[in-house]
Amino acid sequence: MCRQQFTAIADHLDLPEDERDRLLYPKRAITVSCPIHRDDGSVAVFQGYRVQHHLSLGPTKGGTRFSTSVDIGEVAALAVWMSWKCALAGLPYGGAKGGVTVDPSSLSRRELEALSRRYMQEMIPFVGSHTDVMAPDMGTNEQVMAWFMDTYSMHQGRTVTEIVTGKPVATGGTEGRREATGLGVVHLVGSAMERLGIRAARATAIVQGFGNVGGVAAEELHARGVRVLGVSDHTAAYFDPKGLDVPDLLRHVAAHGMLAGYSNELRIDREELLLQPCDVLVPAAMERVITERNAARLRCRILAEGANGPTTPEADRILAERGDDLFVIPDILCNSGGVIVSYFEWVQDLQQFFWGRDEVIGRLYGHLDRVFHQVTNRAARERVSTRVAAMAIGVSKVRDAKKTRGLFP
Fold first, then answer.
1. Could you say which architecture CATH assigns to the domain 23-171?
2. Contact status, residue 280 vs residue 300, Cβ threshold 8 Å
3. Is the CB of residue 97 less than 8 Å from the CB of residue 82?
4. How far apart are CA 79 and CA 65, in angstroms?
5. pLDDT in tens, 133-163
6. Under a CB-based contact definition with an 8 Å cutoff, are residues 239 and 221 in contact?
7. Catalytic annotation, residues
8. Start and end of every Glutamate/phenylalanine/leucine/valine/L-tryptophan dehydrogenase C-terminal domain (predicted)?
9. Is 400 strand, coil or helix?
10. Torsion sign over Cα 73, 135, 316, 68
11. Rounded to whole angstroms, how far apart are CA atoms 398 and 87?
C-alpha cells in the first residue's frame, strides 16, 4: 500500500526516476533481540524493530507498538506514512516507527516493564532527543513511555524528558496528549460538516475502533450533538438507529477493558457496521478495512480516517470515482492531532516551560485548520482527491528539503 501510494503521488508530481528511491527508502532500519526473564524464571526473546525514514527536516518522530503483527515491513511502511504526515503538518520531523512482536496482554506488569526497558536499552545507540523521538502506539501507553524515558535517562546520567512524548504529565508529559488524536479527528469532521452544510445536531456517526482514538472521537462527537449510531472494537460491534448511549459505553469499557458484554440486542456484524447509513464514518482501528469489496457500498457522507492506512489503494480509486458523493479526510491529515501535540510536548520539554490544556488544544485546532484549508484548496485547484492533495503537499516538502540540502558527501 505504501509503495503504491508513493508511486501514484510521484507520477502525479512528475518526479524524476532518480529521485524516487531516495524519497521512499528509509535512512535506517534496525532489528534487535530483546531477551527478558519471565515470571516463571525462564528466558524469552522478542524481536524488536525501529525504522527511521529520513532526517532531512529534523529528528525522526513516531510511535512504538507492541503487537503480534509487528514486522520490519509494517514498521517501515508506517515510518514512511509518518514522514508525509509530519511534513504535511509543517512539523520539523522525519518519520519513524518501531515495535516489538509480542502480545502485551500475555505479559505481567513486571514482564512488560522488563521488555519496555530492554527495547529502549537496545535502541539507545540509534535514538536521541535530536535524532529520533519515540511515542506510544498500539499496545503501548503513557506508562511504557515513562519506562522508556527512565531507561534512557539512567544511561545518560540525567533526566531527559524530551526523548519520548506521550508520557504522563507528572514525568514531563503535556496536558491534552492522550486525547489529541481523537479530538483532532472530530475537529476536522466539524470542518468537513461545515463545508458540506451538515448540522451537528442532525448528524449521525459510526466509529470503528473504541480505543484511545475511537473512544475519544465517539465521546467528542456525542458531546457536540452528533448521534452515534454504531461502535465496534476487536471484541464486538453494536448498532442502534436511535443512537447509542456513548457515556454508558465508555463506562463499560473502563470497567471491562472491551466492548464485549455490553449488549446482546444491539450486536451487529463488524463488517456490516461499516455499511450502515450515516453522515460520518470513522475507521479508527487497523489498516485495510475499506477495500475494493466494500468501498462502493459505503453509505456515509464523510469518511474520517482515524487509523493509519484504513483504505486500500484499490478502494481509494473507487472512492475517488464517487466524487462529491463522499468527502474523505485522509489519514495523514485526519489523525495528525497526536503527532502535532507530541511536537508541542517535545517543545515544552526542551524549554522546560509548560502550557495548560486549553492552550494545547487551542494551538492544535489552529494548526489543523491551516492544514485542512491547504489540502482542500489544493484539491479544488488541481481537481484531485483530498488524499492526493495531502500526499502531494507532504512528499513535496520532503523532496524540497532533500534537494536544498543536497547529497552528502
1. 3-Layer(aba) Sandwich (3.40)
2. yes
3. yes
4. 12
5. 999 998 999 999 999 999 999 999 999 999 9
6. no
7. 97
8. 174-406
9. helix
10. positive
11. 7
